[in-house]
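Retro notes - structure team

What went well: the batch runner handled both jobs without manual restarts.
What didn't: labels got mixed up in the shared folder, which is why I'm recording both outputs here explicitly, each with its sequence directly above its tokens.

Job 1
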Amino acid sequence: MVKKTSSSWLTAVKRAFRSPTKDSDSDKKQSNSNAAQAPVMAPEQRHAIAVEMIRPCPKAAASYKHETAAARVIQTAFRGYLARRALVALKGIVKLQALIRGQNARKQANMTMKCMQSLLRVRARLSHDAGRRSMFAETTNLWESKYLRDRNSRVYISP
């Protein structure tokens, strides 16, 4: 079986910083067989390679800053757009609310006026009817009491 070697940068960094005393016997055997193929590097060279691999690319950092700034601008614009849409919707709701409240207030005012008008009509009718009743009551009592008594008390003499 052939052992798979990983080519990730993390593995390369681990290899560069690994101390030779912690290597297992199998690694020593493998490194001895590979020694003929690859030249042995000094620890300074290993360190230089590891630092080179770890150091971020200056172009990548600049592009990251540029992308971050661009993303911030896009997010700000989009949030502004959403806020404007929400404000327009809120204004519409407020206008509708005011319209409905105005209609309700007008309806209530009309209803109040109609009720007041009907109450005034009833009051006028009651006062008119009460006046008529009192007039008829007085005259009826007057006719019945005074006139009829006087008439009944008189004796007509025939000529």
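Job 2
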Amino acid sequence: MKLPLDTVLQSIDPKTTISARPKENAMHELADEMIRLSQVTRNTKRQAAE
């Protein structure tokens, strides 16, 4: 499932700490989180297939 970046950014609660940081850091964090989530999804699919 791919979401447009705008949708993802809008869905982030502005009260979270991510908005208190410089935008670049927030983008890196978001990217790291997306990578982590995609790995979790892949692992879950792999386990389901076994």
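One thing worth noting from job 2: The CA atoms of residues 38 and 44 lie 10 Å apart.
We'll revisit the folder naming next retro.
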